[in-house]
Design goal:
Helix content is 38%, strand content 16%. The protein is built from 14 helices and 13 strands. It has a 6-stranded parallel sheet with strand order 10-9-8-11-12-13, sandwiched between helices. The chain has a 4-stranded parallel sheet with strand order 4-5-6-7, with helices on one face. Strands 1-2-3 form a 3-stranded mixed sheet, with helices on one face. Helix 7 links the parallel strand 8 and strand 9.
């Protein structure tokens, strides 16, 4: 459901998995997404849907019937649901008796989704926590990059791992960095982009800020920059052509910032750190466990809307981390080690081991051919 035409981490992960599985003996991997049925192939099935978010191409499927028909036809060993709003609904009961195992992937965070819905944050946080528990409780396993018990009362059994395209690696020698601060991701309230703009406005140094991505809050963020008198310092860029070009941008920036308080992984921080960039992210980011020592962090901070004390505190926290990152010298040797150990091959093979254990039991009880 979140496989948008201009989506970020989820699409990157699914595309990488499909490319890897294509050349991996013994794996038949099918990606089922809401899309246009005429574009379907044997390994990627697009079901009837309606586009609802023009900025990134997210689509809402036309019900569950077509999905269930594909599952009945394919008879999978494992069904992995990557969203709680469509694929996961009633899935364990639907495949009951077929022998298929079910895995729910928690890509989001309760706070992230609650912040995306108009209304009271605390109300939606409680509501979504209960709803996720209800949807996920009958799955055989939950896959996540962050602990999930505090989120909705159910533990995750399988780590959600990400990998890197080989272009995300540090330069052989240190290169001259610009003054530019870069954000890469969706331009949305749930990504805390407003905290980053307020941080830029509070800075004594007029460094330029470049926001790379699309999203529903772009116009509002542009107005916020103008309100704070920094419109001339803020550049919006919808797309960077090619992963190699993005890695180059990371290396040349003074720092790469993920201001989100609910980044359950934060692939851009991972890619930036491996590229030898100075990286800033929240203490709650899921990727921090992987890039620890290669990022400056800031605390989640208090809640509060525009003009509140909480919003000001968050902006100052982000700014303090940016100021540290802009003068820090990236550890290129450590970045090279991260890049070398972070291939999609490594991440997906580890995931496959967990899935085989889920289907067959512990590895020492069933011979496994790889």
């Amino acid at each position: 459901m979140f496989y948008g035409e201009k989506a970020g981490g989820i699409r990157t992960y699914l595309d990488a998995k499909q490319a890897w599985a294509r050349s991996e003996p013994g794996i038949d991997h099918t990606l089922i997404i809401p899309g246009l049925p005429d574009r379907s192939t044997d390994e990627r099935i697009e079901l009837p849907s309606v586009r609802v978010v023009a900025t990134n191409g997210y689509r809402v499927p036309a019900g569950w019937k077509a999905l269930r028909e594909v599952l009945a036809e394919r008879q999978p060993d494992v069904v992995i649901a990557h969203d709680p709003f469509w694929a996961a609904r009633g899935l364990p009961k639907h495949v009951l008796g077929t022998g298929a195992k079910t895995v729910a992937v928690h890509h989001g965070a309760v706070g992230h989704d609650a912040r995306s819905i108009p209304g009271t944050f605390a109300f939606w946080q409680r509501t979504l926590s209960r709803e996720f528990h209800r949807v996920y409780r009958d799955f055989d396993a939950i896959m996540s990059a962050i602990p999930t018990e505090a989120e909705f009362g159910l533990p995750s059994r399988i780590p959600l791992r990400f990998g890197l395209d080989p272009v995300f690696a540090p330069p052989a020698e240190p290169i001259e960095r610009s003054d530019e601060v870069i954000y890469v991701g969706r331009i949305a309230a749930a990504k805390s982009v407003e905290d980053l703009i307020r941080a830029a406005a509070l800075s004594d140094e007029p460094w330029p800020l470049r926001l790379i991505g699309v999203g529903p809050a772009k116009a509002r963020m542009a107005k916020l920059a103008a309100k704070h008198g920094i419109a001339d310092r803020v550049t919006f860029e919808a797309f960077v052509d090619g992963r190699g070009e993005l890695a180059k941008r990371f290396r040349q920036a003074s720092c790469v910032v993920l201001p989100g308080r609910w980044e359950t992984f934060g692939l851009a921080a991972y890619e930036g750190a491996a590229s030898g960039a100075s990286v800033v992210c929240c203490e709650t980011a899921g990727s921090l466990a992987t890039i620890d020592g290669l990022a400056e962090t800031f605390p989640e901070g208090p809640h509060g809307g525009p003009g509140s004390r909480g919003a000001d505190t968050r902006a100052r926290n982000v700014l303090a981390a940016i100021e540290r990152a802009r003068v820090a010298q990236p550890d290129l040797q450590r970045a090279a080690s991260l890049a070398a150990s972070s291939s999609w091959e490594h991440a997906l093979r580890a995931e496959l081991t967990h899935l085989r254990q889920l289907v067959h039991g512990p590895a020492d009880t069933v011979p496994t051919t790889v």
